[in-house]
What does this fold into?
Amino acid sequence: MLDKIAPGSKITVKIVKQPTNAAASKTLVRVFQKDPVVYAENDRQRKIRKKNYSPSRRGGRLYGGRVIKQHPVKGVLGEAGTITATLSVLRDLASVERFIEVSNA
It folds into this structure.
């Protein structure tokens, strides 16, 4: 199915089977982060982390104070997103095609 999708078109990707390895989950998270809704959420969280950055001095240098990033997408069963099908996205989706269902948006 991925070979019939033209680069530059909008596609909807849905996870229909739980990924069996960590690499597949990471690939799906990386692809889903290109969804505009997820991108906006990451940007919102980045601004909050930047505002709450409060390091202390330790040995004359700044130490600690960072807030850990919370990922809005986990790469688990049932997640879906609408992204633009670039060549790199299509290559990534081809490596995890047994876990996903792709359709035109």
Summary: The chain has a mean pLDDT of 94. Residues 2-104 form one domain.
